Amino acid sequence: MTERMKHKTVTKPKVGVYGFTGCAGDQLLIIHSEDQLLNLFNAADIRSFVMASSNPIEEDIDVALIEGSISTEEEKERIKEIRKRAKIVVAIGNCAVSGGPQAMFANDGEFAKRLKQVYGEIKFITDPVEATPIDAHITVDYYLPGCPIGQPQTFALLSRLIHGASPDECTRPVCHECKLNENHCLLLDKKFCLGSLTIGGCGAVCPTYGLSCVGCWGPSKDGNFAQIVKSFEEFGIGREDIKRRLHNYGGHKILQYIKDLEIMR
Ligand code: SF4
Ligand code: SF4
Predict the structure, then answer these.
(1) For ligand 2, atom 2, which residue shows the shortest CA distance?
(2) DSSP string of 185-223, one letter each residue
(3) How far does residue 130's CA lie from ligand 2's centre (Å)?
(4) Residue 206 CB less than 6 A away from ligand 2
């Protein structure tokens, strides 16, 4: 190694991993990726990571990975503060992307009633608000769906961002991956599979093992919701069951994508 190389300093991109309301499964997925972590720490300067360090450094960063929905007044302020410091913001996981299961009753007008049913008259440290995805409050540059996120997609995205490239976003539904796996389609057996309405990326893991997709990676923008709902009804599945399954992981995005569909009213 030459003297010049010895003294050459490489500036690593600064990365922060932040958690809002959710189960923290996406942060855990990153921490549990032991085979990738050394590469990540070599390539990036991790300044803040709530699950991994009790000593976050809150300063300007290049990339913010944000998990969880916005569910309190305090979180509404904190997400804006992170946005101001971050050049690139990525929503990671279903809660940050769509609102998560806690947004399954989004916009039904009964948030206050449900809150009281669950918590009674308890006094909160910060006021709860109806759960929303982070793009309801700030501009999001990229989305990494999943419940939780997948390891290959996460490290492919990080690698591209760290090297200054735009990440590839999956636009195909779960059915596409299911076909690549040469699975027998569960719809032919009149099963309640949401694969055609769900954003791909998980590798169609559930239908590959004979289980219907319940849509945990969140709704696909281009799904033919009206036709699939009609097919489910022809299979004998009740409207309320269809509605519940679509809402489970659909959060606010499902309202946006199927606003004209009678079943969602
Ligand atoms: S089994 Fe489900 S995911 Fe697979 S092709 Fe059929 S509808 Fe799509
Ligand atoms: S429920 Fe659907 S989106 Fe979620 S892991 Fe299974 S196949 Fe993938």
Answers:
(1) 213
(2) PGGGGT----GGGBB--S-SHHHHTT-----TT-B-TT-
(3) 25
(4) yes
Structure tokens at 88: 């690139």
**Residues in contact with 155: Cβ distance below 8 Å, sequence separation at least 6, in sequence order:** 33, 36, 39, 40
Tell me, yes or no, whether 218 lies in a domain.
yes
Is 168 within a domain?
A: no
Tens of pLDDT, residue by residue, the chain (265 residues): 445 444 455 689 999 999 999 999 999 999 999 899 889 989 999 999 988 887 778 899 999 999 999 999 999 999 999 999 999 999 999 999 999 999 999 888 999 999 999 999 888 888 999 999 999 999 999 999 999 999 999 999 999 999 889 998 888 999 999 999 999 999 999 999 999 999 999 999 999 999 999 999 999 988 898 899 999 999 999 988 998 999 999 988 888 787 666 655 5
Last-in-domain residue among 123, 140, 162: 162
Residue to substitute in 151, 187, 217 for testing ligand 2 pocket (most ligand atoms within 8 angstroms of CB): 217
As a whole number of Å, the CA-based R_g of the chain is 20
Entry pTM: 0.90
35 and 141, same structural domain? yes
Check whether residue 68 and residue 129 sit in a common domain: yes
Same domain (yes/no): 16, 141: yes
CATH of residue 134 = 3.40.50.700
Structural domain tally of the chain? 2
Q: Is the same domain home to 184 and 87?
A: no
